[in-house]
Amino acid sequence: MPHDGLKRRTFIQAGLATVGLAATGVAGLGGPAGAQTPKPFPINLMAPNKGSTSAIYPALMTPDLVDLSGLDISWVGTAPGQMQVQLLSGALNVGGYGALGVAEAQSKGADVILFAPLSLNHGSFIVPAGSPARKLEDLKGKRIATVPVNTDTFRQAEVAAALYGLNLRKDFQVSHSPGLASLALFERGDVDAILAIEPNSTRLIARGAREIARVEDLWNAATGNKEPLFLVGWAARKSWIDANPQVAAKVAKAYLQINRVVRNDPSILKRPELYTALGLREDETDAIALLPERIARVTPVEWNQGVFDNIGQQIDLALKFGTLEARPAQPLFTVLPGAS
User: Fold this and answer.
1) CA-CA distance, 313 to 3, in Å (whole number)?
2) What is the rounded CA–CA span in Å between residue 61 and residue 58?
3) 185-209 pLDDT, tens digit each
4) 73/75 Cα distance (integer angstroms)
């Protein structure tokens, strides 16, 4: 599939421009030698909602795993649809964003930018055990519970469907609601299928439901892409990163380190404090047994050119199929010195 390589390369190269280091006066972050230990640097990180894949991060932000010296972290709660507002207002310094979401925010004047990976695509179409559906095309005209329309999970699913000549909004009866609300619709039998996300997908499969199509598999089969499909990264206002480059780098490195811990030893997800953060109960033993493999698979451990090329492909295809209206004029991501 042809790409507008020249235009896409412009923002990729700009995104690779490193942020210059500056003395911040933060303990452990390059303050002047011999100076008295300054007060910790206050930073507001997104407190993920229970039942989301990102809910494990607060529990793993511990000194034995990551270096957050010199930072005074406050975990700020968010409500559906409010995280972006909090990030842009400054009430939140770091939050989760997809590449298409960043492109849309920038088109409205926001200076938000990605600086670390959070999650690979974990959207999948799931049907009840007794459903005759075996592939996405079999669900045409059927009722599908989906995540909100302004999420990158839905945007990527929309593009993936378009690659097969399907219009997710017109060829299917889709209803949009937060993950747990969609899950309730599916479990009551009010819909024929669900576009589910983790850990809800794992819970449903453990109960006997069937996963008939993963968005990443649809995408890669149609495009020939062999890299994981990037979904969401950690984002901040570019002005905040420019003012606090070493703080941002330390946060990025911490998130990446946690991801690598999960990938290297997925069995930690069986720890009660982690599976309960993911919304599972102690008696959901089948789902807990599936968690390590399924969550580790969608946990990214790289922030490199392969990821950036994948982001570029997302922009190209979103423009082609009308999911995105205009090509971003500014970089969508940045690489911070010392963050990897």
Assistant:
1) 7
2) 5
3) 999 999 999 999 999 999 999 999 9
4) 6
Question: Whole-angstrom Cα distance, residue 281 to residue 80?
Answer: 23
User: Which two tokens mark 105?
Assistant: 């925010």
> How is residue 48 annotated by DSSP?
P
> Closest Cα partner for 4 from 310, 327, 222, 332?
327
Percent helix, strand, coil in the chain, to 5, is 40, 15, 40
What are the C-alpha distances in Å from 226 to residues 35, 217, 310? Answer: 50, 10, 10
Look up tokens 């995105």; give the residue: 324
Contact between residue 136 and residue 212 where contact means Cβ atoms under 8 Å apart: yes
Give dist(CA 311, CA 274) in Å, integer: 29
What number of helices (H) and strands (E) belong to the chain? 13, 10
Query: Is the preceding peptide bond at 40 cis, omega within 30 degrees of 0?
Result: no
User: Which pLDDT score is estimated for 82?
Assistant: 83
CA–CA distance, 244 with 43 (Å, rounded to integer): 10
CA distance 131 to 117: 36
Q: Where are the beta strands (DSSP E) in the chain?
A: 41-47, 71-77, 95-98, 112-120, 124-127, 143-146, 173-176, 193-196, 210-214, 230-237
Name the nearest CA neighbour of 68 among 255, 220, 225, 243. 255
Share of the chain above pLDDT 70, in %: 89
User: What is the share, in percent, of the chain residues with pLDDT greater than 90?
Assistant: 80
Cα–Cα distance measured from residue 323 to residue 318, given in angstroms and rounded to the nearest whole number: 5
Contact between 179 and 129 (Cβ < 8 Å): no
Would you say residue 173 has pLDDT above 50? yes
What is the dihedral sign for C-alpha 96, 257, 296, 120? positive
pLDDT classification of 22: cutoffs 50, 70, 90: very low
